[in-house]
Amino acid sequence: MSIKKVVVAGGGVLGSQIALQTAYCGFDVTIWLRSEGSIERAKPKLERFKNIYIETLEAMKTDPSEYCRGLAAKTDLSEGELDELKQKAQDAYDSLTLTTSYEEAAKDADLIIEAIAENPEQKIAFYTELAKYMEEKTILVTNSSTLLPSMFAEHTGRPEKYLSLHFANTIWKNNTAEVMGHPGTEQEYYDEVVKFAEDINMIPLQLKKEQPGYILNSLLVPFLSAAEALLANDVADHETIDKTWILATGAPAGPFHILDIVGLTTAYNIVIMNPEAQDPETTPGKIAKMLKEKIDAGETGINAGKGFYEY
Ligand SMILES: NC(=O)c1ccc[n+]([C@@H]2O[C@H](COP(=O)([O-])OP(=O)(O)OC[C@H]3O[C@@H](n4cnc5c(N)ncnc54)[C@H](O)[C@@H]3O)[C@@H](O)[C@H]2O)c1
């Protein structure tokens, strides 16, 4: 099978990026949205990302540090080649079809990428409705960050053709694509999705089994939690903890700088999922209190200009 028509369901932060990147790499892309209002909200996002692609490609003419792995396979492109890619970004944007019709979206779709809200009931409702319209050949993937494909497989009407394809925010720069099946996913469709990820300039990272948090968050969440615990228990200040990590491992950034990038609200939402966080005497309770105080003060990370550090 070769994938030609790709549907992205959802035009939020990630859906709009995935749609534009896929069209940029030459696929026929339709974005399915649940209402006319969602269409109107998706349009400025798509335009903004298209402009970022064009500006980045222009900047790459004079500044090699602007190079983004998702935009071009090699760094040493001529001005003419970069102009062609700028045109490609514009053409990709112009080629996008936006629809609220399940029927129109699903017709002849080879691959559907679900990127709607991270809410199990809403995802199930979407899959159940979509299943009525999908053709036999269609492969279905979810971009869910925290939910496992086995939670939804039975609702898709095609468990063997259903798996996760997990992108990272700012996919034209951070071009990872974690590929993860559930026990009922057939290898043939898993391999097809790996190939598709390569075809849209992503680096496929293959998981052999289901794992909450995939590879990245399985590493990152415990690492950041350990750093938060050192600070909340007053073992050392955040600068000393970061300095230790950077000097000892050669890493470019320490955990508190990473927390500022991720955003303290996300870190807080993760810690309060732990029931122990209710008790202020426990380490999770102390971490929750520490993060809540900063969030209440508006110090939520880089986007706010201040988190653990000032920007
Ligand atoms: N934001 C990130 O950094 C990031 C990174 C990787 C994966 N993800 C995953 O991608 C998915 C989407 O995240 P996002 O950040 O783009 O969210 P978002 O809130 O920015 O966008 C959600 C989109 O889905 C639509 N939507 C919401 N509820 C819906 C419903 N019930 N039915 C149909 N459409 C609905 C919205 O209109 C919007 O277009 C989530 O599963 C999330 O875990 C997000």
Description:
With 311 residues, the protein is α/β, with parallel strands linked by helices. It has 2 domains: 202 residues, NAD(P)-binding Rossmann-like Domain (Rossmann fold), CATH 3.40.50.720; 86 residues, N-(1-d-carboxylethyl)-l-norvaline Dehydrogenase, domain 2 (Orthogonal Bundle), CATH 1.10.1040.10. It contains 11 helices and 8 strands. It has an 8-stranded mixed beta sheet. α1 links the parallel β1 and β2. α2 runs antiparallel to α3. The longest helix has 24 residues. 37% of the residues are buried. The protein binds nicotinamide-adenine-dinucleotide. Nicotinamide-adenine-dinucleotide binds next to α1, α2, α5 and β6.
Question: Could you give the topology of this structure?
Answer:
Layout: E1 5-9, H1 13-24, E2 28-32, H2 36-59, H3 79-95, E3 97-99, H4 102-106, E4 111-114, H5 120-130, E5 139-142, E6 162-167, E7 176-181, H6 187-199, E8 203-206, H7 216-232, H8 238-249, H9 255-262, H10 264-271, H11 283-296
Parallel strand pairs: 1-2, 1-4, 2-3, 4-5, 5-6, 7-8
Antiparallel strand pairs: 6-7
Helix pairs in contact: 1-2, 1-3, 2-3, 7-9, 7-11, 9-10, 10-11
Residues 10-15, 33-34, 38, 42, 115-118, 122, 126, 143-145, 166-167, 169 line the site of nicotinamide-adenine-dinucleotide.
| Helical run tally | 11
Q: Could you tell me which ligands this complex binds, including any ions or cofactors?
A: nicotinamide-adenine-dinucleotide
CATH superfamily of the largest domain: NAD(P)-binding Rossmann-like Domain
Number of strands: 8
